[in-house]
């Protein structure tokens, strides 16, 4: 190469450090990546549900617990910082994966089932674009802002 910057596709401006004529970085190249990541989480959810079905535990337990981690949103009654901590505590994979391991090693079918339900919940959230919350507000996540932009809201 002879000192010129190479660009690749629509994300080229971002890769070369140049901005487009409007002065904004072109982030359109991230769309296929977003789709792949969401698809990956959808596969994780499907696998967790298939293993749950294979476990033979009642579907009543699945129905009862699939939305249980969202009860952590009640933490937002204490403000955005407490809400984010409560929400994120129940929406990271560390505890359900450890619970799955303990359940497997001890042969405890209910622990395995709860871990699979919890994992499915987290994976479904990520597949739908809901990420871990930032302390600035419920809409601010590690995946970006969720919901409609303020300027798109009708009066």
Structure description:
The protein has 155 residues and is mainly alpha-helical. Strand 2 and strand 3 form a beta hairpin. It is built from six helices and three strands; from the N terminus they run ααααααβββ.
Distance between the termini: 54 Å
Radius of gyration: 20 Å
User: Count of helices?
Assistant: 6
- Largest sheet, if any? 3 strands, antiparallel
Tell me the total number of β-strands. 3
Average pLDDT taken over every residue: 82
Structural class by helix and strand composition = mainly alpha
In brief, what are we looking at here?
It contains six helices and three strands. It has helices at 12-16, 30-55, 59-65, 80-89, 94-106, 109-127; strands at residues 133-134, 137-141, 144-145.
Key attributes of the depicted protein:
155 residues; disordered N terminus; three-stranded antiparallel sheet; mainly alpha; 6% strand
How are the SSEs ordered, and which strands pair?
Layout: H1 12-16, H2 30-55, H3 59-65, H4 80-89, H5 94-106, H6 109-127, E1 133-134, E2 137-141, E3 144-145
Antiparallel strand pairs: 1-2, 2-3
Helix pairs in contact: 2-6, 5-6
């Amino acid at each position: 190469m002879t000192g010129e910057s190479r660009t690749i596709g629509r994300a080229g401006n971002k890769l070369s450090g140049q901005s487009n004529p409007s002065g904004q970085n072109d982030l359109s190249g991230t769309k296929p990546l977003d789709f792949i990541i969401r698809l990956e989480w959808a596969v994780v959810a499907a696998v967790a549900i298939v293993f749950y079905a294979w476990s033979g535990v009642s579907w009543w337990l699945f129905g009862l617990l699939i939305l249980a981690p969202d009860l952590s949103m009640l933490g937002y009654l204490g403000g955005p910082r407490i809400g984010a901590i409560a929400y994120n505590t129940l929406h990271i994979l560390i505890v359900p994966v450890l619970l799955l391991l303990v359940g497997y090693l001890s042969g405890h079918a209910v622990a395995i089932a709860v871990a699979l339900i919890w994992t499915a919940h987290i994976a479904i959230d990520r597949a739908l674009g809901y990420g871990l919350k930032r302390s600035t507000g419920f809409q601010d996540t590690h995946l970006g802002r969720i919901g409609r932009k303020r300027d798109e809201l009708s009066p």
